[in-house]
Design brief:
This protein is an alpha+beta fold and 110 residues long. It contains 6 helices and 3 strands, in the order H-H-H-H-H-E-E-E-H. It has helices at residues 2-26, 31-38, 42-50, 57-67, 72-75, 103-107; strands at residues 80-84, 88-93, 96-101. It has a 3-stranded antiparallel beta sheet with strand order 1-2-3. Strand 2 and strand 3 form a beta hairpin. The chain is globular and about 30 Å long. 16% of the residues are buried. Residues 83-88 and 94-110 have low confidence and may be disordered.
Length: 110
């Protein structure tokens, strides 16, 4: 129904900025640094972080790759960050706990 779609869109618009901001702080990335990695304008990143702009699924997938997390982090309102370690970003869903290697862990692989 349209109201369910609208409610889902509102959740998406609220959680993307929060989760992007959290991941950027976790990885010590500024808007400028992330914009250079993504080959976009700094104002685009700022828009994502403030909620003025909504990234499409391709941008979500690119962000997920950059931060070493699943796109579900941005898309599923029931997925929550539980604990962070230097090697894993751990998140939980109603079905249990799952982990995804972080970019830091990838960098240590020789």
């Amino acid at each position: 129904t349209p109201s369910n779609s609208s409610a889902a869109s509102d959740v998406y618009k609220r959680q993307v900025p929060d989760r992007l901001d959290y991941l950027m702080r976790l990885h010590n990335l500024t808007n400028i640094a992330l914009s250079e990695i993504m080959c976009c304008a700094e104002s685009t990143i700022s828009g994502y972080r403030t909620g003025r702009r909504v990234p499409d699924i391709f941008v979500i997938c690119h962000l997920s790759t950059i931060f070493g997390v699943t796109p579900i982090i941005f898309l599923d309102s029931q997925t929550k960050f539980v604990q962070l370690t230097t090697d894993y970003v751990i998140y939980t869903r109603p079905s249990g706990i799952t982990s995804q290697p972080s970019r830091a862990a990838d960098a240590n692989v020789t």
